Write the structure tokens for this entry.
Amino acid sequence: MADPFLSIQHVRKSFGATTVVQDFNLDVEPGEFVSFLGPSGCGKTTVLRMVAGFEEPSAGKIVVAGKDITRLKPNQRNVGMVFQAYALFPNLTVAQNIAFGLKVAGMPKADTDRRVAEMLDIIKLPQMGDRYPYQLSGGQQQRVALARAIAPKPKLLLLDEPLSALDAKVRVSLREEIRSIQKKLGITTIFVTHDQEEALSISDRIAVMYGGKAEQVGTPFEIYNRPATKFVANFVGTLNVLEGTVTDAASGKVKVSTQEVSLKGKLNGSKSGDTLSLALRPEAISLGRQPGRDSSLSGEISEVHFLGSVIRVRVGIGGNTVSLDTFNSPATPPPAVGEKAEISFSSGDMLVLH
Amino acid sequence: MKSGRFWAWVVFVLGAAYFFIPLIATVEFSMRMRRGAYSFDAYQIVLGDPRFQATFMYSVIAAIFTIILGVLIVVPAAYWIRLRLPQLRPVVEFITLLPLVIPAIVIVFGYIRMYGSNSPLPFLGSDTGTNSLLVIGYATLALPYMYRAVDTGLRTIDVRTLTEAAQILGAGWGTIITRIILPNVLIAVLSGAFLTFAIVIGEFTMASLLNRPAFGPYLQNIGANRAYEPAALAIIAFVITWGCMSLIQILSRFAPRSSNRPN
């Protein structure tokens, strides 16, 4: 396997007595798009700022393309960055903003003009070069910020919640645009976000962070379907958590309320009598018995929400409530609150949270 | 409603009268030099006086150097405090207010004691040294206005993010200050500069005690010995000050606008 392009090794960051990042490790391959996903205060932006050089790690090192950049100043790192607040220079036009890094690097004027035109084409704003930032919408400003960041051909692109200040529709289109530009240029990218949908939709890999640590690093598929910790399972996607008690550890029997389900091979280390948290994604559950689903639980419908194409149903099972979505079918009336209902699922889809 | 508007007009007219009557009276008096007729004789005498031209030019040049010195000290200091030492802001604000509390005469006596021709730093031993000391003194007097103007300008931009954006694009401190920060607070700097100009043009104490041929001592001298010319000079000084204020207003139209402060 080739050496990683970016290697963050045992990085720690403390502000006074508070440690905000602890023993963070991550290797990023060339051209890879990695997202740092986590709630506010989990340390994701601090790690990004350490890669950018705005914060100095208290311990550990950061290596880019085989070179230790831990103590280098931000202007010596050849890293591009897009900020949440756009950070376009208000006194410069769009073209001058994009040209800023090129001029600082001493690129001749003709080459600079050519590169600026190329960048304006990439971000699909070829006619906007003479405008000032205040004359652009938020989405356009962030595209200009992206063009400015990639114009000097940085080794690494850092995106610090670049879509947070935009409205939902622009956010979706811009994230797709960012991903397509990143793929086209093959630039190694770190993307910080607290929006799981954003991270799942555009990343090659995701580092889910909590309490200054990477809880899990994996592909979006792995993160969603095989969460390594309770936090990851809860943070990424919607999850139904059921409390159960192990009745027979050897055969994998677990009692949920008064009903039993079989989780053979999933109870590693649990003993009979242990209490477990069991998790099921809503899309893994069907209302009624369905072929191919080996487990079921009975309960009573407690809530029904008609959402147009789907109907969200909540089923009470003892002290637990399970939420699931069913497609709306005009020929079938929606289930009624108070009806008895059976939910079925494949035991393989049930996660045991540790 | 109508009665409210009436009283508003009464207050406005009273306020305007309070402001304009002394001004009109001064203009009227300054034009009565020729017996029995209004004329601009006093203005002609004042503007034609070589001492007026020499002292005015001296003060203009002193003001320009004071503005340059003030900008060189205040812009990087205010920028650095906003960027890295925000906890020091109250202390620095207090220090910049001191020239308003400590009379100029105290400062200038301090200078004379500290920088006399027998001291280790004999600024007062030469004309150039004394002129430099005067400019330094003026920069101190103008500090409260310059600092506040620049600090207010810095408040309107996101100093930290703009600095980081420029840094990550490879810019050093010099480039950041001259190409990003200064252009974005230029109007604030100009406001501070014009206030500095207005202070320096009329300053008397420092120039007089350091025995410099400045406009302030000339004004005082004319005021003590002539009748109509001081009124003409007062009007000229007033026009200069208002000219400065108007320039600030005109230049502020060209201020760079940020997206969150579009108008």
In short: The CA atoms of residues 197 and 237 of chain A lie 8 Å apart. The mean pLDDT of chain A is 89. Chain A has two domains: 6-235, 240-353.
